[in-house]
Each structure stands twice: as C-alpha cells, then as structure tokens.
# Entry
Amino acid sequence: MKKRMILRFKRNTIDKPVVYWLVKNYSLVVNILRANISPKAESMMVLEIEGAERDFERGIEYLGNLNIDTEPIEQDINRDETKCVHCGVCTSVCAPEALYIPDRSTMRVEFNYERCVACELCVKVCPVKAMSVFFE
# Structure
C-alpha cells in the first residue's frame, strides 16, 4: 500500500528519528515530500509511505505511541486543461516543482502529479482558476 500522510509533531517529539525507525523497524519506504521543522513550535512533515499493509499499520501505531498526530492527505490538486493559459504563475510558488516549464520556447506548464504535496499554493495564485482541490 502507498499513502501520503501528514505528521504533526509536538515540541517534545521533534528530536525523534521517526523516519529512520519507520524504515528500519517496519520495512516502510518513506519519501519526505515537505517538512517544516521548528524546535520552538509544532512541526509537520508530509510523507509518502509505502509498504505492506500490516507494516504500514504498525508504523502508524508506532507514531501514535510517540504522540505524533497522523492524517492521510485526502485531497488532490487538479488542473483543468481547458482553463489553463500556461501563464506560469503557479510554477513560481511550487516548491516541489510539480508544476514546471520544461521548454522555455513554448512556455507550456506541465504538471507532475507524483511530485505534488497538495499544499494548495497553486490554487491560490492561479489567475484563471485552472487549479482546484478535489477531496476524496
């Protein structure tokens, strides 16, 4: 199974090597999509976690025992190709480069869904409202 998850850390849990233990003890493949870690405030990470269903469940239980809140990302970002004018504004706010311009001569914006972390910044800046949020 493969899921994108948001992990929310309390101030007293940010010093734990949770990704290491998810890989080592639960045989999970973890891809860090986004992280905002601060020693003086609550922190968060967006992870893509992949592994056997039982290992996944055990890994999530481990995080709960550490008082780390987890929630699946239950939304996707969609682009309406009929509205998109390829202005490129979305590419300026897309940190994981899910939205990008591969060929500057055409200026056509491409969308790599696999890199998207559903931060919704592109939805906010799109002048023609071609980007939208879909909730599962």
User: Anything to note?
Assistant: The domain at 75-135 is CATH 3.30.70.20 (Alpha-Beta Plaits). The helical segments are 18-26, 53-65, 89-93, 121-125.
